[in-house]
Design goal:
heterodimer, A: about 110 residues, mainly beta, seven-stranded mixed sheet, four-stranded antiparallel sheet, 11 strands, about 0% helix, B: about 110 residues, five-stranded antiparallel sheet, globular
Chain lengths: ~110, ~110
């Protein structure tokens, strides 16, 4: 079965640079979620989108922005990167009204800021 | 504010044992609860989801229960195998939010 696709899988950036992470949800899924998992920590919710509209917002820094496009893929844009942004970034997807909104996670993008 | 804790933090057992992993949450008004498996440096694999009106769900050797009144969920793993070695995370979702709140996980090692 098709899973959530994230690209790139690994990304190395320097401080103050920008990064763009991409997420392609499972086919027919209409909701996308972004999470950040720091080293040795549990995942923290950043933001979610349903039908291209922001659905919920968590602890996402103002330096980050995200959107969902007409084909339901989503991008997380990160600017003025800081060392503390180094983490594993997960995208998850679900389909409204299906399976009690079970969230299916992608493999993650490992971002390293030097 | 919902808080999720997991006990034990780590567990090491011989192959074949039946295991119980515990998850506690402070806000009983949850919408659903998911159990995940995470291998080191890898993504999260959804194992089971229990909706608020259910008491348990089963998938193969896995059984998860939910007791909202006591704020607890347990993941039962039958006949453990070395391939079960991973970190197991529970995560709760409340009404009117998309956010999953994760516990800190139980790191499981099953040795032959």
């Amino acid at each position: 079965a098709a899973g959530v696709i994230q690209s790139p899988r690994h990304l190395i950036k320097e401080k103050r640079e920008t990064a763009t992470l991409k997420c392609y949800p499972i086919p027919r899924h209409d909701t996308v979620y972004w999470y950040q998992q720091g080293p040795g920590q549990d995942p923290q919710f950043l933001i979610s989108f349903y039908e291209k509209m922001q659905s919920d917002k968590g602890s996402i820094p103002d330096r980050f922005s995200a959107q969902q496009f007409s084909d339901y893929h989503s991008e997380l844009n990160m600017s003025s990167l800081e060392l503390g942004d180094s983490a594993l970034y997960f995208c998850a997807s679900s389909r409204m009204g299906q399976g009690w909104y079970e969230q299916y996670f992608g493999p993650g993008t490992r971002l390293t800021v030097t | 504010k919902q808080e999720v804790t997991q006990i034990p933090a780590a567990l090491s057992v011989p192959e074949g044992e039946n295991l119980v992993l515990n998850c506690s949450f402070t806000d009983s008004a949850i919408y659903n609860l998911q159990w995940f498996r995470q291998d080191p440096g890898k993504g999260l694999t959804s194992l089971l989801l229990i909706q608020s009106s259910q008491r348990e769900q089963t998938s193969g050797r896995l059984n998860a229960s939910l007791d909202k009144s006591s704020g607890r969920s347990t993941l039962y793993i039958a006949a453990s195998q070395p391939g079960d070695s991973a970190t197991y995370l529970c995560a709760s979702r409340s009404y009117n939010t998309d956010k999953l709140i994760f516990g800190t996980g139980t790191r499981l090692q099953v040795f032959p």
